[in-house]
Each structure stands twice: as structure tokens, then as C-alpha cells.
Amino acid sequence: MSERLGVTPAQTVGPYLHIGLPWPDGPYAVPEGTPGACWIRGQIVDGTGAPVVDALVESWQADPDGRFDHPDDPRGARPSTVPGFRGFARTETDGQGWYGLLTVKPGPLPTPEGETEAPHLTLSVFARGLLHRLVTRVYFPDEATANAADPVLRGVDPDRRDTLLASPAPDGYRFDIRLQGEHETVFFAV
What we know:
GO terms for molecular function: ferric iron binding; protocatechuate 3,4-dioxygenase activity. It holds the Pfam family Dioxygenase_C. It is a single chain. This protein is mainly β. It has one domain (16-178): Aromatic compound dioxygenase (Protocatechuate 3,4-Dioxygenase, subunit A, Sandwich). The chain has three helices and eleven strands, in the order αββββββββααβββ. It has helices spanning 16-20, 144-149, 151-154, and strands at residues 37-45, 56-60, 88-92, 98-104, 109-110, 116-117, 120-126, 134-139, 167-169, 172-174, 177-178. Strand 9 (167-169) and strand 10 (172-174) form a beta hairpin. The longest helix has 6 residues, at 144-149.
């Protein structure tokens, strides 16, 4: 007689992601020296404010024309006009929880409902203690009109929208990610 076995417990993602998935040019969605390139840098902290030193951050974004060289772009896949743009980057955090991604600012995107999403990057965060990736967005402070009209941002509690807004930095933008607690970054169920 066989006994029914219980469900195997879920495993957390990491810390192996931080060790095994980065690659040398992973942080570069565009090559160094690309005109208009900027850094998105930030620190990932846990609910107590302690740096998360073994996280992995992935970005996905449209090019400056708001296009993807991907079959899921409803307007059709089209190579970017920015040489070397790949629309994807991956980097790990350092010993103080800092990450950095070199990219170009994306363009606005049409929605299936006929609206327009403001320029943004989608970030996925993987780290120890997480059963699934966390997905958030980075919006730009110099896009106030587009941000106000963005259907995703309009759906976020007004008191929490600032957690999705990068701030200007000398070489681009700063976007810190707080995994939980007071002023937790908004994460999306995708």
C-alpha cells in the first residue's frame, strides 16, 4: 500500500542567482559611449533598511522610440535605431546592496486600450528569501505630464506612486528599492 506524499515546500530564489547568472556586459542595455546613455543606480534594502547584498536585478524596456525588437510588440518587431541596444540588462548588487544599469531612456508605449504608458523600465528583483521575483517599474521625474496620464501609475495609490519615481543623479537616475516595510516599493503581480 502506498502512502500519499505531501507537497514539496517551495524553495526561495537565490542566493545562487547572484553567483551564477551575471555576465560581464550584463549591466549594459547599451554599449558604453552610446549617445544619450544614462545609468540607473540604486540600493536594494530589506524591511529593516539593511542592504540586500546578494540580489539580482533585471531590466526590460522599449527603445527611445517606444518599440521592442520582439514578436510580442503589437506593432511588429523592429530593430532599434540605437546601435547595440538590447532592451535587457542584468546585474547583481554589491556588498552594500547597490546595483547599476546603463541604458537609454525609453519612449512612451501604446496600450491595447488606446492609452499611452509613460516612458519606464520594468525591473525584476531576485534575492534570498523570495519565493518569486518581484516586479516593479521605474518612471522618470522629467515626464510629469506622461506620468500623470499613465494608466498603470493612475492605478497605484497616490501616496505610494513616489516609490516608482526615479530621482535625478549626476550620471543618470537613482532608483532605490525597499523590499518591505515603511515606504516599500510598489510591486506588481504579473
